[in-house]
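Person: At home tonight, work slowly through the protein below, taking as long as you need, and write a paragraph about the fold.
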Amino acid sequence: MFSPTLPLFRALRRLALTTKRARNGHYKGNRTGSMGWHTKHGGYKLDFSKVRTYVVPEGLDSFNVGSPQG
């Protein structure tokens, strides 16, 4: 069986991580859009006008998520 040489193995580690190269269950979140911008000091500023908000319908007080029925 083919095994990569040490320099080739180091080069493979520097390639971009994709869902095909990662283990099962890895989700990268493609095409989600930005919610802010990067600062020059390595931080991230959120723009709250871009942050996604979800509106929950009223009347879900008696709705149980994950509880067994019966």
Q: What stands out?
A: Strands lie at 36-38, 44-46. Residues 35 and 49 are 8 Å apart (CA to CA).
